[in-house]
User: Fold these one by one.
Assistant:
Number 1:
Amino acid sequence: DTGVSQDPRHKITKRGQNVTFRCDPISEHNRLYWYRQTLGQGPEFLTYFQNEAQLEKSRLLSDRFSAERPKGSFSTLEIQRTEQGDSAMYLCASSGDHHTGSNQPQHFGDGTRLSIL
Amino acid sequence: QKEVEQDPGPLSVPEGAIVSLNCTYSNSAFQYFMWYRQYSRKGPELLMYTYSSGNKEDGRFTAQVDKSSKYISLFIRDSQPSDSATYLCAINQGAQKLVFGQGTRLTINP
């Protein structure tokens, strides 16, 4: 049973550069979530997908951020023109079938740690 | 006011002690309550998941929900050094984004 996989685990880049992270959810999960976590804080919601549809975006997701899930499987999160304040852990989570209307718990990957120089 | 409040600690207890971790929340529409454990440089790991008031037990862990008081707790019995981690409460309204507390950093001293 493979869990949520994120790549890379750590990304160091200079301010102003673009970065892209990848998330592979648990295979049978149709919902995929992105969160951001800064030191000493709980994760904060960024956006989520049901299959390939992006259903909600947080106001934290400025126009420099874009997320995709083109085939309803893996997802990418891109940050353009990175800023110092983007330094954080970016976490991906997935959850199972919601067609019945029931809530399913979210399972997290180990995140991508972004450091902006 | 944050939607979910959690004392960040740090909390340090001797091995074998009973640990009590707590969160309060403000939105009565919240229906689902979770506790996650997070080790350093790792993602949150789901420990407990419940949707009703009352207690839920799993091994040394007990989750307690009091919807009337908007208060949730996690109890750890016979605490072990391997329980040293940050514990995050998380709440949602169902099939939606999780709202997390700040996390409580716990250390169990041998």
Number 2:
Amino acid sequence: QKEVEQNSGPLSVPEGAIASLNCTYSDRVSQSFFWYRQYSGKSPELIMSIYSNGDKEDGRFTAQLNKASQYVSLLIRDSQPSDSATYLCAAYSGGGADGLTFGKGTHLIIQP
Amino acid sequence: GAGVSQSPSNKVTEKGKDVELRCDPISGHTALYWYRQSLGQGLEFLIYFQGNSAPDKSGLPSDRFSAERTGGSVSTLTIQRTQQEDSAVYLCASSLVSAEQYFGPGTRLTVT
């Protein structure tokens, strides 16, 4: 059974600080990893993808992948109140037939 | 460009009735996915299409659920004899290859 685990939170971070979101996955076959942001009542929005070990930066977001530890993280620098949302970590094993395996998400609150 | 569209946005139906949900993927995206998100639950993968074919239908929750895709584009998810436990947000996603998936706004289904 493929599983993606996230701390449900809420994770409260002051405005301007770095928010750190973590995720672990069970299936070593997983090749690709994604972070989605979901505002209440809205659908998930893709914000980062990462395919190889190391860091990937895009604006204020940095995704980190460690396949040996089966660990993925997302750092949000200079956190803004608009970053308050649920962040979903997803893993993909390839082949298409299984779709993405999602964690249940971490609820992030940025305090002004 | 235009994103993934879904219709209807909301659907209220009586227990036992059939419903049909529609997804129009991003133009040119060959892969199409259906997911379900129940209140307080994570996203549950239902089915994947590559072109018009669905290689694995085992993710569908029961035989009351069926899906088809025609012309490599629009897909419909049909739920027969709806039950209250079918109440959820049904999300469609599409991708160019089986990797980065972009979600539509979803259809909120309420079975009374």
